[in-house]
Amino acid sequence: MKLFVDRRSLVHYCVLLFGSLFFSLAARMASEKFYPLAFFSFVLAVLFAWIAVVREVNEAAIYMPDSMRRPVHWIYAETFEIFALIVLGFLRVTSPFRKSQSISCAFNTRPILLVHGYLNAGHVWDFHKKILAKKGFGPIYTIDLGHPFQSIRSYALKVQEKARQIAKETGSSELNIIGHSMGGLVSYYYVAKLAQAYSVPQLITIGSPLQGTRIAKIGFGQCAHDMRPDSELIKEMHVAIESCNDVKFYNIATRTDVLVVPYTSAFFKSESQHQLCFDDIGHASLLFSKRVSNQLCAWLKNP
C-alpha cells in the first residue's frame, strides 16, 4: 500500500501523537491524584510539543529574514543536540558490551578509517558507518584513541599504527580517513607529518577545529591545549600540510557549532567545492545526520 506522506512528515505526525497521548495521560493522572506521574507525563507532552513546533518553524525559516532565521536555526540545532548527547552517553555506557569491527560487504573499494573526537571513542561512528557500508563503501574501520587527555601527536601515532594494520589486513596501500571534531585535527596531523606520500587520497573532516577553537582554552589535557588557535601544533601542522599536494581535503562545518568557535575554524583552505556548511546541525548531531552521510557518500564516490 502506498503511503501518502514522506518519512519526515510521518515522524512529525508521530511526535504530535505522542505529545497528545502524554498530555491526555497527564490529565488522567491528575484527576486520579497521581501527581508525580501526572507531572512527568506533562513534561513529556511539553517536550514532544516543543519538538514539533521547533521542526515546523525551522522548516519555514527559509522564508524569514536573516535576523530571524539564524536564531531559529540555533534553537533547532541545540534542541536536537541534547538528544545527540544522550545517545552518545548511551553508546559510551554500552560500548564495553559491543565488539568493534570493520564493516563491509566486500573489499571492492578503498578502506576507510573513522577517527573520533575529544572525550569519545570509536562507537560514535555507528550511524555513519552503517550507511557508508550500505552504500558499498569499505571496508570501514574505527579506532579508539584511548586516554582522553593525551596530545594530538600521540593520537596521530596511534592512527599511524592503525593505518599499518589496515594495510596489512586489506593489502591496500591507500586509506581514506574521516575525522570528527578533534579526530579531524589528529588526521590532519597524521597526513602532514606521518603518512607516506599518496597513502591518503582523501581526508574528510566533520566539525573539526583545524584552525583551533577558543573553547579549547577551558578544556583539559594536552590535546585541549593543542586545539587552541595559537598552539604550536596548529602552526606546525599548517606549514607541513601545504606540501601535501597528493591529498584531497574536504571539510564539513556548521554555523550552530558551540564547540568549534568560530565555526569557520572548521575550514582549512578556500576551495569552496570541497567545503560544506550547515545552518542547523549541532556539533554532536553531525554524527547522526543523514545529510552529513549523504555528503560523505558523494565525496567518496566522486573525489
Please tell me the overall pLDDT: 86
Rg is 21 Å
CATH class of the largest domain: Alpha Beta
**CATH topology group of the largest domain:** Rossmann fold
Per the principal axes of the C-alpha atoms, what is the gross shape?
A: globular
Largest sheet: 6 strands, parallel
Estimated structural class: alpha/beta
Strand residue content: 5-15%
How many strand units? 6
Sequence of strands across the biggest β-sheet: 2-1-3-4-5-6
Span from first to last CA?
39 Å
Low-confidence stretches: 1-5
Q: What share of residues is helical? A: 40-55%
Could you say how many structural domains there are in total? 2
Descriptive tags:
alpha/beta, Rossmann fold, six-stranded parallel beta sheet
Detailed description of the structure:
With 303 residues, the chain is α/β, with parallel strands linked by helices. It has 2 domains: 1-60; 97-301, Rossmann fold (3-Layer(aba) Sandwich). Helix content is 49%, strand content 10%. The chain has 9 helices and 6 strands, in the order αααβαβαβαβααββα. The protein has helices at residues 7-31, 35-60, 66-94, 126-134, 152-170, 182-194, 222-226, 232-241, 290-301; strands at residues 112-115, 140-143, 176-180, 202-206, 248-254, 275-278. It has a 6-stranded parallel β-sheet with strand order 2-1-3-4-5-6, sandwiched between helices. Strand 3 (176-180), helix 6 and strand 4 (202-206) form a beta-alpha-beta unit. Helix 1 runs antiparallel to helix 2 (35-60), helix 2 packs across helix 3 (66-94) and helix 6 (182-194) crosses helix 8. The protein is globular, with a radius of gyration of 21 Å. The two termini are 39 Å apart. Mean pLDDT is 86; it is low at 1-5.
